[in-house]
Amino acid sequence: MRKILGAVAAVVLFACGSPSGTSSEPAAAQPEEGLTLAVEPGVTRGTFLTGAGTEVKLSSREVEPGVYRIEVRFNGMTLAGLVDPENGVSTLDGFAEANGQDTQMTDADREVAAALYAALNAELPAGDAATAEAKYLRRAVGMWAEHPDTVQMQRTVMGEQGRGYTMLCSYAKCNGSWTGNCGGSYNWYSYAKHDCQHGGWDYTRNQQIAQLGNHTTCSGDEYYMNGGSWVCGEPDHWIRPKVIGNCFGRCGGGCGGDTQYTLDATNHDGCVRNGHALASAYCDDQFVSAIDDELFASNCY
Fold first, then answer.
1. pLDDT tens for each residue of 185-194
2. Residue 90: in which H helix or E strand, if any?
3. Are 177 and 108 in contact (CB under 8 A)?
């Protein structure tokens, strides 16, 4: 367990007592920015303080064999989940602490959740090396970090491999490697699709030919083929452009601590990276379809 270290003021007691107008009580220790996490058998809990001063309280505990209760609290809101991986079922909720009323994620809330997700990725072992409580906490936080404000927080999620989610591990490799330069030998997945105001799933401008996996990236964006050359950026509703890089098709924001490459996560990437923002209502259906992938899909490596 990492502990927050706070400076404690030393108090010198004189025979005549404390000087007039001063207190003999030690100054209260102030929490330090960052993540304080305790991982114990059956429970992971801690606090997270953002640079802007937002405090997050988080916990994940096994409430019965193989079932995990997750709770994340910040900004007057509680995000809660009951996750049953063996049966592929979870219930999720988000509500105001003051009155229990339903609430929605805002840009500010997503920013806090994304910072917490990054801190959990840095602190916890990757993939299945993490305890189950820690792993499902990390996955839930990654899901909330991308939760659009137009999607209801309260829902039941059911996932089953091949039906609820489809694994695409083999498409995340190039030259036999999960990461690194593909060296011109790509393993394209056709196609990353979405539907939006431009057209439906079959509209060619809503499709990208993607090299999945954590391969060559540029300034946190993709490379795409333009006139025979790779260009850094994001093609906006081109006709089936080839794209590569930045963990395309991987569940969670960026390159998180887990490594699930799935069909629904690929389609969600193909929406938010094709002229739409993360919280775009046009990508809501792809996000909802990818929730069970994020929570339940197995790691590719």
1. 999 999 999 9
2. strand 89-96
3. no
The answer to whether the beta carbons of residues 162 and 298 sit under 8 Å apart is: no
**Residue 44 DSSP label:** E
List, in order, residues 6 or more apart from 204 with CB less than 8 Å away. Answer: 239, 240
- Domain range for 46 is 34-158
Do 129 and 224 lie in a common domain?
no
Entry pTM: 0.86
| In a domain? residue 5 | no
Tell me the C-alpha distance between 164 and 191, whole Å. Answer: 19
Domain co-membership, 51 together with 130: yes
Q: Is residue 163 in some structural domain?
A: no
Count of structural domains, the chain: 2
Kindly give, in sequence order, each residue whose CB lies less than 8 Å from that of residue 297, ignoring residues fewer than 6 positions away: 159, 161, 165, 167, 251, 260, 262
